[in-house]
Amino acid sequence: MADELRRRWRNWSGEQRCRPLLIQRPRTREGLIAAVLAATARGRSVKVAGSGHSFSGAALTDGAMIDAGLLDRVLDQDAAGLVKVEAGITLGALNRRLDRRGLALESLGDIDRQTIAGAISTATHGTGARFPNLSSQVEAVELVAADGSLVALDAGTDGDGLRAARVALGALGAIYSVTLRTVTNFRIDRTDRPRPLAEALAALDELVDGRDHFELYAFPHTETALCRESTRTQAPAAPPSPAAAFAREVVVENWVAGAMARIARHVPAAIPTLSRLAAAGTGRTRKLDRSFRVYASERRIRFTEMEYAIPRGHAREAVERVLEIAARPEYRVCFPIEVRFVAGDDAMLSPAHGRDSAYIAVHHDHLGDWQPYFDAVAASMADYGGRPHWGKRHSLTAAELAGLYPRFDDFRAVRARLDPEGAFANPYLERVLGPAGAGGGRRRR
Ligand SMILES: Cc1cc2nc3c(=O)[nH]c(=O)nc-3n(C[C@H](O)[C@H](O)[C@H](O)COP(=O)(O)OP(=O)(O)OC[C@H]3O[C@@H](n4cnc5c(N)ncnc54)[C@H](O)[C@@H]3O)c2cc1C
């Protein structure tokens, strides 16, 4: 049975809000089917929300919302490390349960609060030249279609269906379960070290290819880059004391960063100085712990974000251009530029589809005027055929996106097949994919 709640919904940063007709929280597969049918039988649109960590309007609806948070079980595990889980399990809970079984996810992003279905649906990624985004670890997906039928997608039965469902923006149906390829659990030995920016950019390929995971933060108004360099290892974990971890990850990375954002909001002329102070404060630190404890960190301050995937070969030039934009006083930017690297993959709507990619992320005070800065960065990303992260801010439309994705029409064909009436549509999907269904779908509320 689904719990029925009636309330407002907002995302993590509080910028995306909606008032669904109702919010249901199913606890079982049958409950999920009943929740979908209860909506579609009344002609309502349906949207499944994960944990609301998208900066885009991907999860918004004024129809029926399904909160997948209670669908959080590990369902099955086989000897080859395939693990089947319910869609609403968070990455944090999944990591802990996998670890107890001696397993781990191959790669992760920098937080673990997302649900597995939400994370794959927007192509959430980490960093590492050999590692594609999380959805590449998906072997099978089960989803509930608008008519209540359970559709099983895997490479053997429906390869294109799976390549669409791995990164589907919630457009194909309500995901009930995901089967993931896991690896033997491991530790990560991570060193954060400041390097001269010019030196880091000149040696970018060597840094990226010479480490399992490499990430770069470039501070506007400075000549400094903080390089986060990680090696996978089976050496025993040596976690920092809780007090040391709190001091570094909460006090330094959140409270100090939050205070700087507040000062910058009120005294924009101080931004170059604040940025230099932040860069100067980045000392060398090391962390050796279970993989998932190193990948994920605390994010207590709120911000908004845009991120583009571009062909990796353009990374250096693109970073230099974005830094030049970020330093323009009118944009009031007090966050570093974040640069990550992933291997290409074959999900139809993965921003890394068919190409090894560099992801360039820009952040801004969510209460400030972020739009002109993001627009200027997006314009430069267009020169490299940049594809926006589906869970972050961007303003591209279906007409523009169609030219960026070689299999865009194939995705739309799968969508027309699995959701012919547009039951899972919302304004975000109308903008980025166009109307649902062969004939444009039926508009619902
Ligand atoms: C602080 C922070 C840090 C982040 N770090 C990273 C990072 O390191 N790397 C990165 O790539 N991204 C990152 N993100 C973005 C985030 O990973 C994605 O936006 C992700 O989609 C959020 O997952 P969610 O569970 O919150 O999904 P939601 O935001 O709630 O939903 C995302 C989409 O998935 C759909 N969906 C969710 N569940 C289902 C389901 N069961 N069936 C069908 N559709 C479903 C929704 O309808 C929606 O379209 C970060 C975001 C924040 C706020």
Describe this structure in words.
The protein has 445 residues and is α+β, with helices and mostly antiparallel strands. It has a domain at 187-388: 3-Layer(aba) Sandwich (Vanillyl-alcohol Oxidase, Chain A, domain 3), CATH 3.40.462. It contains 14 helices and 21 strands. Helix 10 (315-326) packs antiparallel against helix 11 (371-382). The longest helix is centred in the middle third of the chain and has 25 residues, at 242-266. Bound molecules: flavin-adenine dinucleotide. Flavin-adenine dinucleotide binds next to strand 5, helix 3 and strand 12. Flavin-adenine dinucleotide binds at residues 12, 47-54, 58-59, 68, 87, 109-111, 114-115, 117-119, 121-122, 124-125, 169-170, 174-175, 299, 389, 391.
Total of helices: 14
Looking at CATH, the homologous superfamily of the domain at 187-388 is FAD-linked oxidases, C-terminal domain
Query: Mean pLDDT score, rounded?
Result: 92
Trace the largest sheet across and list its strands: 17-14-16-15-19-20-18-21
Ligand identities: flavin-adenine dinucleotide
- Shape-level CATH architecture of the domain at 187-388: 3-Layer(aba) Sandwich
- The proportion of residues in beta strands is 15-25%
Low-confidence stretches: 439-443
Structural class, by secondary structure, is: alpha+beta
Percentage of residues in helical conformation: 25-40%
End-to-end CA span: 23 Å
Instruction: Please give the radius of gyration in angstroms.
Output: 21 Å
Assigned CATH class of the domain at 187-388? Alpha Beta
* Main beta-sheet annotation: 8 strands, antiparallel
CATH topology of the domain at 187-388: Vanillyl-alcohol Oxidase, Chain A, domain 3
Number of strands: 21
Shape: globular
